[in-house]
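Review form for a predicted model. The reviewer records the input and the model, then writes brief findings.
Reviewer: anonymous (R2)
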Amino acid sequence: MGKIKIAIFGVGNCASSLIQGIYYYRDKNPEDAIGLMHWDIGGYKPYDIEVVAAVDIDRRKVGKDVSEAIFAKPNCTKVFCRDIPKMGVEVAMGKILDGVAPHMKNYPEDYTFVPSNGKETNIVELLEDSGAEIAVNYLPVGSEEATRYYANCCLDAGVAFVNCMPVFIASNKEFARRFEEKNLPVVGDDIKSQIGATIIHRTLAKLFTDRGVKIDRTYQLNVGGNTDFLNMLARDRLKSKKISKTEAVQSVLDVPLEARNIHIGPSDYVPWLNDNKLCFLRMEGRIFGDVPMNLELRLSVEDSPNSAGSAIDAIRCCKLALDRGIGGPLISISAYTMKHPPIQYPDDVAREMVKEFIQGKRER
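Model under review:
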C-alpha cells in the first residue's frame, strides 16, 4: 500500500501523540502492538501515515521542522517515542481568527500560546503543493470561525477532512453536502478517546438502562493541565463542546434526562497535571423496588495519546474512502471515533459498522 499523506492544523499535544505513534509502531508486530483498536485497516498500518504539511500560529513552532515542533512548548504530553527523524516539513504560519482566546495572554509562556507575527500562509496553496490527501483538525476548542475557514480551504484544495474538534462540520448539513458534492470524505465531529470520559459515561449509561436501572441524574467533571483546559476556562468557547459531550451520553438513553439533571463539561485547569486528565463521574438512579443507588468513578488518563488512538483509525478509514471514491460524511467511523457524528449509534453497533466498512460493505 502507498502512504497516507496528511496535513495537520494545530501542532499541539494531540498532534504530538499522533506523530509519535506513527513512528512508535514502525518496529512493532501485530502481536505486540499495544494500544491499537485496529492494526490493519484495508491494508494500511499506523506507520503508513505521512505528515506532508503542518500549520500552527505559535512562534516556537512556526518555521521549525515538525519533528521539533511537536516537542516545543506549550506541549506537555507524555513522550513515548523521542526518536523522531527530521521530516523536511516546516510548520507554516496559519490564520489565527478565533483560535486564541483573549485570556490566554495572561498566563506564563510555558503554559499558553505565543502567537507569531509571521506572514500568514496561503492554506489552499500549501495543501495543493504538499500533496496532502487528508487534513486533520486539532485547533483549540472554541475555534468556530477558524475551523470553518480551514474546512473551506480543504474543500477548495480537494482535501478530505478529519475534524477532531467540537465545531460541527461533518454533522452540519451544509458542510456535509459540500464535501459530498466534491466527492471528499469528511469524518467528525469531536474526537472520542479510546478510554475517555465520554466512552465510559456512555457505556455506564447504557449498562444502567439495559439492566433496568432508572437514571435520575448524572454529572461528569473533568480537570487537566494542558492548553486545552487552560483555553476552556473561557466558558463562552464551550457551547459546541458541551452540546457534543452531552448528546454523546444522552443518545444511549431510552429517555433523555432533563437538562437540570445532567451536567457534562470541563471543570477547572490545574497546571501541574500537564496532559493528564482527571474525570470525576457520578450517576444516581433507582434499582428494583424503587430503591436508590449511586455510582462514583475517578478516571486518570494521559489525554492526548488517548485521543490519538482513535484518530489513527479515523485517518485510515478516511483514506479507504478516498481509495473507493466515497465522498461526504463517513457514518460508521464517525460514530465510532467521534462524540458528535452525523448519526449516533451505540458503540458496539458502530464497531461492527466499522468492521463492515473496512471489509468493503456499504454503510447503513
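Findings: The chain has a mean pLDDT of 96.
Further findings: Residues 197-303 form a domain with the Dihydrodipicolinate Reductase; domain 2 fold (CATH 3.30.360.10).
Recommendation: see findings above.
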